[in-house]
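User: Can you help me understand a structure? I only have the sequence.
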Amino acid sequence: MSSAATATRATTATSGKRRVAVAGVALSDCGRVDEATPYALHAQAARRALADSGLDRSVVDGFASAGLGTLAPVEVAEYLGLRPTWVDSTAVGGATWEVMAAHAADAIAAGHAEAVLLVYGSTARADLKARRRTANLSFGARGPLQFEVPYGHTLIAKYAMAARRHMHRYGTTLEQLAHIAVQARANAAANPDALYREPITVDDVLSGPMIADPFTKLHCCVRSDGGCAVLLAAEDYVPDLAKPPVWVLGSGTAVSHSTMSEWEDFTVSPAAVSGRLAFQRAGVRPEEIDLAELYDAFTYMTLVTLEDLGFCGKGEGGAFVEQGRLLRDGALPVNTDGGGLAACHPGMRGLFLLVEAVRQLRGEAGPDRQVRKAGGRLPQLAVASGTGGWFCSSGTVVLGRE
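Assistant: Let's start by predicting it. Here is the structure, written out as tokens:
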């Protein structure tokens, strides 16, 4: 650590909470990865994120991982050769990584950790192709879920029912939902890491094979392999970083329900709570955000999350997404890498949202897909919001540059 960083640490140790920076981000190989194990993808992403940060692995004293191994994150940390003194294995579906980022930022700010590595990897696609696993119909048949499993509720069916409720209450149309898939694919066109880059039309979405009414195939996320990693560090380490930091400005988390019968309103997600908390703690308003990275296992997730984060009014999401607002050069660029609908979705995709948001804020997305605001300026503020289960959980993180 540099002398400047040492001095900063001495100051912040006596002055209260420290600021938390995103020090490094990286993807592993993504898309079609037939020859790697999930552990190998974890390691590849972790090495690349550390290299991106410019920090030595010895500074990492915190580790967060979920979804792999019997004793996650113990097994993954051991595989990576880490001996962390702060760990997190929170598992709340796709929102896991935003929730973990919130926990890690709080721990670093309080001085309980110096640098926390969040890492994820999955070979969901390759495992299915090789018949090492089958597609899961439900998350289990114990506890409260036992009362729904006999009726054949799949995860996609639950999202489909919620979408139908929004359509019934607010007049949202299938064409409006299809616009979300079309714009996601357009954003993916310039992303060399995206699994699908060919353009699609609203008619393509509407005419596809039915998966769960009203969702056709292109309303649903892709299934891919891949992993990624994010390194969060105390402000003390900023002088040693290889790149300018992106700051964690605020975060919020929320859980709602596990059974559909306990979901009070199918048209409202927990992002209505996590988003409000994150914006409040960051001291910003939704209208100040330059880009949004939102969990999009299905088109309806994008629409309702936009409403619940306050980018448009409740019931106005359909009209909001129609006019190309979500495109890279739109009024509110959303899922600028193509999202889970086009780029990648290996399972719990939430960590990919943070990676893309950081790359956009740094100006590293490349000339063909970098978001530029008025006058050609780089974006200053981004929000990443993950969703877990069937709108059971939400984590929202606001990120910003100096």
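Now, to help you interpret it: Confidence is low (pLDDT under 50) at residues 1-15. The longest strand covers residues 246-255. Let me know which part you'd like to focus on.
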